[in-house]
Prior knowledge:
Layout: H1 2-7, E1 9-10, E2 19-20, E3 25-26, E4 31-36, H2 56-70, E5 74-79, E6 119-123, H3 139-145, E7 150-156, H4 158-171, E8 175-184, H5 192-202, E9 206-208, E10 213-214
Parallel strand pairs: 3-10, 4-5, 4-7, 5-6, 7-8, 8-9
Antiparallel strand pairs: 1-2
Helix pairs in contact: 4-5
The structure holds zinc ion (ZN).
Zinc ion binds near residues 79, 98, 99 and 124.
Amino acid sequence: MKNEVQRNTYFPANGAGLIESQLPVEIDKHTALVVVDIQNDFCPGGALAVADGDKVVPVLNKYIEKFRNAGAPILFTRDWHPPDHSSFKEQGGPWPPHCVQNSEGARFHPDLLMPPEGVIVSKADKRDEAYSFFQGNDLTTKLRERGIKRLLVGGLATDYCVKETVLDGLKYGFEVFHLDDASRGVNVEPADSERALQEMVARGAKRIKLNDVVMKSKAILHEPIK
Ligand SMILES: [Zn+2]
């Protein structure tokens, strides 16, 4: 038990000292799961593969099952670029072409559990870059209207879209949990993921794993987010 507590402590940015996060995290009607960019191009063999990117799929599936059983919302984000997207090298951006709309690379990983009630959120579908799923849509309003207060975020990649989604979630006033066992980083520099995690925690995110997430009682089933 002592180890549990230590693993789930974090240092807040204001230097107030070690703080214990509220664990376990209970899935209730105010909690949503955000699965970030589990697309072929970010998995081994893809145009912008994250090392072991596909390894997060079975773990995410377990989170998805828990949320399904709770009747809680599940959102799937996807990079969804036009062929001349500004992030591509040909247009002066940093990345090779990836996740071009309707291409095989843009499809979700075939092993990812995608329940019919899951909500797909496309991002960066115009020329401009967007790393966070909050950018360029009215999702924040929709989540607030539904009474969502807490987001559990995992996927690809820790040092880009997961990080930006976590930070934006915090910025917009959500309580945000990073799924340590269900994210992997690109690590252009070897320590990028670790730095990203430190930044998330410094801004108030909490780091959790599958066993920290429980469902006490069946949550009230939601209207699907449209
Ligand atoms: Zn992209």
